Amino acid sequence: MSDAAAPPPVARLVVWRHGRTEWNAGGRFQGQLDPPLDAVGRAQAARTAPYLAAALAGEDAVLVSSDLVRARDTAEALAPLLGVPVQVDERLREHGLGSWEGLTRDEVAARHPEQYADWLAGRPVRGRGGEPAEAVAHRVMAAVADLPPAGAAVLVTHGGTAGRLVEALLGLGVDQRRVFGPLGNCNWSELSFQASRWRLMRHNGTVALPAGEGGVPRPDGTYGRSGADSGDAVAPAGASPEEAPPAVPQDADATT
What we know:
By secondary structure, the protein is of the alpha/beta class. It has a single domain (2-229), classed as Rossmann fold. Helices cover 31% and strands 16% of the residues. It is built from 8 helices and 8 strands. A 6-stranded mixed sheet has the order 3-2-4-1-5-6, sandwiched between helices. Strands 7-8 form a two-stranded antiparallel sheet.
């Protein structure tokens, strides 16, 4: 809790997950491997960047990305709109998933059934290797502490890392993990430092698609996303530390 309450170098954080990759769409675990954005992911970044830039208009902002190409390319869509360079920090990388990296869900289930069962149940995954969740939280909190003083910072990162960061900033303990659903591809969370602590102001923010571009009608007459292009009610198609198979709840993330 002390880390979450420490005076930060910025008063506002936007935690932005990268756009979709072919591996996300195919249910393949990426971890710290480096597949690029696919055409959908590039379109997501191009569509979302102007919205974030408008929301940050007039603020002294910094833009920091994971060193993995899917995050860097997402950040590059926003940089010219903010008028700032992309700073790269490898501490914003995805949760290392050890022997699962590069495998599909089906392959993990066939080769490592006990580990897969742990993942589905939200238990620590034994024998996989990679990083403990606590190590991910520690490194990403260190990255936040090292930000230059600014009014706001946009951190372009990954599903698992974003989850551990939000939990750490809010001072959530182990028993409170997975309280929040995972970020969809190119969705974001926004936090504000107020009265000596971080507050979550928005979670899983997304830019709606118009009807002509595949948007799904909502009860209020607007259009949203669905499927792999979404963080909405339909489970995303990817395989990440934060995403469970479509048939099970999304809170079955991959921990070590």
